[in-house]
Write the structure tokens for this entry.
Amino acid sequence: MIHRRRYGLATTVVTAAALLAACQSGGAAPLSLSGLTKTVDGMAPDGTDKCPLSYDIAKAAKTAGVDTAAGPGSVTGADGPAATGEGGKRAEPGEPLAQNPGALVSCTFHIGTEDVEVHTIATRKPQASALLAPVVQRQAGMSTDDLIAYVKKAGEAKAGEPVLTGSGNAATVRLKLDGEGDAALLIGIGATGGSSLEPTRVGALAEAFASQVQ
């Protein structure tokens, strides 16, 4: 999803495979692969009007030291649902989330006049964050070389440690899972390549979101 549409991981098989090769040399319950998959399986195919995960954008913004008004949904006029799901039972053969079974929930929030995209992904095998590479590239406006380096760094980071893009408006955090699998959270703020929010606040916001689901 993001900007209220499905993010089409089915179109990223070649990109994700290349990045994986380069990298290898809701509720109160803990996040798990089975739980996130169940959440996606229960979502409407076209998405929902409310994020199904236990994210509190106002609380996350406060924790990150951001005093701008924040809330659910888009403020940029984007059409479509506020949340979408991919993977699980709806994954088609050959899609990344079928090749590495897992699930992705993407939700839209806002801070001030900028949309905040929050993607939460869990897969059976490493590296979950690599499957979000097309979203990172769109959000940060990265070259392919920079993207490969970024995905490698994000995949090797310690759980809970935010990894910022060079643009400063996107950050990935590896998540701890209850049980098997690998998981990551990606946030993106503002337009491609930039946000009014300081990079340190973006990293803190990603960390705050991560703490709400693990």
Remarks:
- The radius of gyration is 15 Å.
- The chain has seven helices and seven strands.
- The beta strands are 70-72, 83-87, 102-111, 114-123, 163-164, 170-175, 182-189.
- The mean pLDDT is 87.
